[in-house]
Amino acid sequence: MVAVTVWNEYVHERENDAVAEIYPDGIHETIADALAERGHETRTATLQEPEHGLTESVLDDTDVLLWWGHAAHDEVADDVVERVCRAVTDGLGLLVLHSAHFSKPFRRLLGTPCTLNWREAGERERLWAIDPDHAILDGIETPIVVPEAETYGEPFGIPQPDEHVLSSWFEGGEVFRSGVCYRRGSGRIFYFRPGHETYPIYHDETIQDVLANAVEWAAPTDRGVTQWANVNVDASE
Amino acid sequence: MVAVTVWNEYVHERENDAVAEIYPDGIHETIADALAERGHETRTATLQEPEHGLTESVLDDTDVLLWWGHAAHDEVADDVVERVCRAVTDGLGLLVLHSAHFSKPFRRLLGTPCTLNWREAGERERLWAIDPDHAILDGIETPIVVPEAETYGEPFGIPQPDEHVLSSWFEGGEVFRSGVCYRRGSGRIFYFRPGHETYPIYHDETIQDVLANAVEWAAPTDRGVTQWANVNVDASE
Amino acid sequence: MVAVTVWNEYVHERENDAVAEIYPDGIHETIADALAERGHETRTATLQEPEHGLTESVLDDTDVLLWWGHAAHDEVADDVVERVCRAVTDGLGLLVLHSAHFSKPFRRLLGTPCTLNWREAGERERLWAIDPDHAILDGIETPIVVPEAETYGEPFGIPQPDEHVLSSWFEGGEVFRSGVCYRRGSGRIFYFRPGHETYPIYHDETIQDVLANAVEWAAPTDRGVTQWANVNVDASE
Amino acid sequence: MVAVTVWNEYVHERENDAVAEIYPDGIHETIADALAERGHETRTATLQEPEHGLTESVLDDTDVLLWWGHAAHDEVADDVVERVCRAVTDGLGLLVLHSAHFSKPFRRLLGTPCTLNWREAGERERLWAIDPDHAILDGIETPIVVPEAETYGEPFGIPQPDEHVLSSWFEGGEVFRSGVCYRRGSGRIFYFRPGHETYPIYHDETIQDVLANAVEWAAPTDRGVTQWANVNVDASE
């Protein structure tokens, strides 16, 4: 059992009826329920809460943080971003979802533009296993098919991934690295592309299974063991 | 100007009229002409020649070797394979083309199965830049479109590439890492997917430009400088 | 509990009294005992047995294979090497020890010369954690100190590792990547430098702990799930 | 010829007589002279200048930026740091020197703590080639010996490097990845460890040669070609 916090900017669901119909309680609640059903201990946090619900104590009690944002990246306070990034390098797992490719924490931790091509055309997506033995694909049959999705296309402005797990095919002619892993300090980061506010993708059982696997994968095993600090050391005996 | 040897098993063109019509003198001659037009010094070699045309002296006079094979991988003599692999780790550049993903030298140098999914359906292929700044894409507009191609699909049984340059989209629903780079010893290896015997793909100007760029990229810069040997060394002063 | 086979060429111990004194039953028995004490199910195999003790059935019953060789690399039959390499890409874990950097299976799986500088001077070695959070270092205090060791030095003729876990410092002035990880097909490979026939290094508790951790890490989790084969597939629905 | 700007916080040289004796005009001038002698077009900038001497126009006219800092990392304005990081992802080359491992731009671009162990004991350092064929080592004999150096030790809190060029051995018992390469967007980054304010290391011919090679390596080849932006694209024909 992993202690999970699902963070959502929670804007579209409150302002757009079509989105509210798919995610009446917000994307965060749908994901949190799916992870709870799979045995994880979940809580949620949103942009609107004080400190966006990501206080030091919440982060201290969290093993893996999921991040969903799209319309309000700039409204996330820089000190909270710094706190999250420091927590990640101290061992917090981070799952970055869909349009959060452009979120402040992801761009800060990767150091790259994290830009891409995109198109809203309700196209069919197929996610192929690049690394079929990866723990995140444990028990997952590939290709994973998403009947209607927002299209993302390369080039994706990210560093060479430490592990490349999945790539997507889109009906309209694009490909995209949809599942990539990074290590930053003691923390593990997984970017997972599927999931747009106007499609019920986070209600899909297989997508939920991938997220649950990723939570297991990203959970810290040596949390706090490695002290990342400049240390003045003596010469060896 | 780079000294290039284009190797071809040269089987389909001699046994299949449809292939002979597209490549009357063999795929090797078409590629060699294209590279010569772009300023490289080219020669060819085929399976049917003594030592498959890859004697020590030919390899010594070669900076970059291109390898095309499909139907006769097993007919390539193991001692020639060993000679080619040793030349690569000594600095020879190697371009591995299309169905040569399953050739003895490529599998020997990578150490993996190099297997994939495939389908002969004359589907449209689009090659996207994953690393648009890579030297192999210098002056190349992406996506590169191939109107009719054999389809390859992931998972591709290769090690994590040192550099991932291109990925393909196929009309029928597959994706594939179509341009990947490896370093082995002092040698540089580029696998490039396009090019099937039943399609005129090697007559395409853009495909020829990519091959010419790859030849430049793979050409040894420090040829022979690094002596890969177990050396008994003295302690430092 | 992991099913482990410890392979040893078993030459020095039978021909050299000084070595026999340190490893009376052979290096393989010392390592097998240490892994058994740590809960693994162990067996051994040696060069002198039929098929070097590595029959198909032995490999089928093995999760992780440890390989120690030094004086007799060339005496290992190529068909056994092919069998071992295929087993690795099918998911067998492989731990490559010390002078086995130059063994046929390691060189075949990496595709590089695997050469290095060396010196037999009984120098002090310190192994530093490059990746202190890695599972192979779970519970291990670094630097690991080996009072007397054969010295290895860079450049080490290997591909860029998938994971770089440890690097060594040597009294005489060398550094070396002493713990590196590779993925080949479905198999995991760990090269671990310490351990020379003329020093009691495999009797060291910490070295034994690292080997036990590496066995856990290399054990297949998806054994046999991924079928690495060229497959003719239909177009997607 | 590459357009180089050498940036220095320029604090120690003005406040410490011992340092001023070694670098009377500042570390930046010594490095700039060495690069100019090797054919590069050089200018300098320091912390004390308006915008730290790194205005948009200076960065626009710069191909490769060298960064030296130690005592005043926190005094570098965040908007200048952002400007430099954006310039890097747009193609600017960045050479990060010695104690600048802890500078704001390096930590921002890597996303990790960038921490290490250290000791000021005037120890002997030997830099070994991990990748002897790398362009940055063109014509350089290794090991490079630095008679007296500040000691750095692993673990170094950086992401897995894209290329690992050099590692250091220190008299007192440490090892360190002293030359590592990263790609961020279109920019190339090289971290090079040698060079402390209390030792005349930047007066060393070989160290200067490495810096000149690194400038060549980091210079943008496709500057401005790749526009890293989120782009709404049409479906393919």
Automatic annotation (TrEMBL), chains A, B, C, D:
Q: Where is the ThuA-like domain?
A: 4-218
Q: From which domain of life does this come?
A: Archaea
Q: Name one Pfam family in it.
A: ThuA
Entry-linked InterPro entries: Class_I_gatase-like (IPR029062), ThuA-like (IPR029010), Trehalose_catabolism_ThuA_prok (IPR009381)
Signal peptide stretch: none
Gene3D superfamilies attached here?
Answer: 3.40.50.880
- Could you identify this protein by its name? ThuA-like domain-containing protein
The organism of origin for this protein: Halomicrobium mukohataei (strain ATCC 700874 / DSM 12286 / JCM 9738 / NCIMB 13541)
